[in-house]
Amino acid sequence: MAARTKTQGAPRRFFFLAFALATALTLIKWGARIGRGRRAASREVVYVEEDRFGHDPSVRRLRRVFAAAEAEQNLLLDRLNIGRLDRRLGQWRKMALHLFERGWARATREGVHLEEKDVAHLYLFCLAKALATRGIAVPGEALPANIAVARLLEEK
Question: Which of 50-59, 62-71, 143-152 is predicted least confidently?
Fold first, then answer.
């Protein structure tokens, strides 16, 4: 095999650089179209994402429910001295989600109307149950005193 000279690799490098530049320019152009950017006072492009579902009352209710559940979860984790970057949180949240879906379905079947705070409490009870199955004791005072919601997680 013959040794390559410096000039033989030049067309390949030129093609790669031209392709990279064309790709970058295309992405910038598409980003300006898709993101609907507007110019800020400091000449930086600020992308504003349009919220198409924010006017729907059911979507707003669910957003409030999830925000309340997240706030309750953060309070519980702080009381238990568990960091928000703990690797085990993913498994615990997955288990809590499974229990939460079962509990919410049971509430729907039984005709129990859950307010926003009740749904957040249901998720908190589910997370506490998931933590308990993994050996982390959750003190009773860390959970809300909502017997109707706790009853939804009891086995029949």
Answer: 50-59
Rounded alpha-carbon distances, angstroms, from residue 96 to 28, 76, 80, 91, 129? 41, 13, 16, 9, 7
**CB of 146 within 8 A of CB of 118?**
yes
The predicted model gives 127-136 an average pLDDT of 90
Torsions phi, psi for 43 (to 5 deg): 70, 10
Output helix, strand, coil percentages for the chain, rounded to the nearest 5. Answer: 65, 5, 35
For residue 57, pLDDT over 80 is answered with yes
Residues linked to residue 111 through DSSP beta bridges, in sequence order: none
Rounded-to-integer distance, Cα 129 and Cα 140, Å: 12
Say if CB 99 and CB 129 are below 8 A apart.
yes
| Contact (CB, 8 A) for 76 and 138 | yes
Question: What's the rounded Cα separation, in Å, for the pair 15 and 134?
Answer: 56
E strands, 20-69, are 38-39, 45-46
Q: For the chain, which residues make up each domain, given as ranges?
A: 10-46, 57-151
**Residue 69: how many CB atoms within 10 A of its CB?**
22
